[in-house]
Design brief:
Blueprint lengths: L5 H34 L3 H30 L14 E3 L2 E5 L6 H10 L3 E2 L5 H10 L5 E6 L8 E2 L11 E2 L4 E5 L2 E5 L6 E7 L15 E4 L10 E4 L4
Parallel strand pairs: 4-9, 6-8
Antiparallel strand pairs: 1-2, 2-9, 3-9, 4-5, 4-7, 7-8, 10-11
Length: 232
């Protein structure tokens, strides 16, 4: 076997090199074409992506709108339930009578209404009933057994707030100067109170007269009423 001469070897290597270069160029072109084709999104996929984005932005817009409406919507004020013609103040319902009776009959009348003669817990309560009672004297639920015994409420709890009470009687009432006492047989108007009505459970449904929603005091320093008709 004879070896090719140097010029022949050079031409052979050059020829092989050109073939390899052509092969490499063809492979590179094919690779670029495949890569570009794989990176290009198909029309179906593009449409699906656009639909998903539209749905996402719509959901975000609806959520933001709902939060904005809820933030600026005025909240409904709670309506506390007191019977018709009663006045709500500091969690209690008050009834001011227009007729008169002695202390015992006044307490009986309040009991018939599911209440008792008024029991006052603070100076705020006293100021409220003083402003609203008018010019008439009114019995309240405060009494004692004799002049040496402490004052107690109709539920037998002792008088805890040191209200000043004038007089030497055994039953307390309100006049224009505050709390006074006298014989229990004197006839006066009376004030009943009880805790505001609680919401009824599912197993105890009743129909009440229209609810009486009352603020603590109106602008003029007196309670005012607003009725919601048709409420259970």
């Amino acid at each position: 076997m004879s070896c090719p001469s140097p010029p022949a070897m050079k031409r052979s290597l050059c020829h092989h090199g050109q073939k390899e270069q052509i092969v490499l160029q063809h492979w590179a072109y094919s690779h670029r074409a495949d890569t570009g084709h794989s990176m290009e999104m198909k029309p179906e996929a593009r449409v699906a992506c656009q639909v998903m984005l539209a749905v996402l932005f719509t959901a975000l817009f609806i959520t933001a709108t709902a939060f904005a409406v809820q933030a600026f919507q005025p909240r409904a004020q709670p309506c506390f339930q007191c019977p018709f013609d009663w006045i709500r103040y500091r969690g209690k319902c008050y009834y001011f009578s227009e007729v008169e009776g002695n202390w015992t009959s006044s307490q009986d009348n309040c009991s018939a209404l599911g209440a008792s003669l008024a029991m006052l817990d603070s100076m705020e309560d006293l100021s409220f009933v003083m402003r609203y009672k008018g010019i008439s004297e009114h019995w309240i639920g405060l009494l004692r057994e004799d002049e040496e015994q402490p004052w107690q409420w109709v539920n037998r709890s002792l008088l805890s707030y040191p209200f000043p009470i004038r007089g030497v009687g055994l039953c307390a009432y309100l006049d224009d100067n505050g709390l006074s006492s006298s014989h229990c047989s004197t006839e006066r108007s009376w004030i009943c109170n009880k805790h505001e009505l609680q919401s009824l459970g599912k197993g105890n449904r009743m129909r009440w007269p229209p609810n009486l929603c009352v603020s603590s005091l109106g602008a003029a320093g007196r309670p005012y009423h607003s009725q919601i008709s048709g409420a259970p």
